[in-house]
Amino acid sequence: MEPRSNLGSTAATAEQATYRIREKRVMVFMLGNPTFAVAVQAIYDSLKHLKDGGSLEGLQDRQASPALLRSVNRTDEFIQQQQTYFP
Question: In terms of CB atoms within 10 Å, which of 19, 29, 36, 54 comes out highest?
């Protein structure tokens, strides 16, 4: 089951969600978006490498492993859904 992150768009819904969060003693910490900044830098560096004449092979040591990619993009889940809905 996926976690729900939508707290609602109306004031009443947001107030109800805030109450539920307080009731469960949930604490949320916002530390900025360093992960996004790291991803932007990685994309920039890889595109610059290619623009400057670098090869795809030169990026190989910076690539995520196939296992990590399958986990992040949920390849197995999508394959299963394709087999279920598009036999």
Answer: 54
Domain boundaries in the chain? Answer: 11-85
CB atoms near residue 33 (< 10 Å): 10
Residue 1 pLDDT more than 80? Answer: no
Phi, psi of 69, rounded to the nearest 5 degrees: -60, -45
DSSP annotation of 60: G
The amino acid at 56: L
User: Using CA atoms, how far apart are residues 68 and 55, in angstroms rounded to an integer?
Assistant: 23
Beta carbons of 36 and 44 less than 8 angstroms apart: no
With tokens 């394959």, the residue in question is 79
- The residue with tokens 């610059």 is 48
pLDDT tens per residue, range 50-70: 999 999 999 999 999 999 988
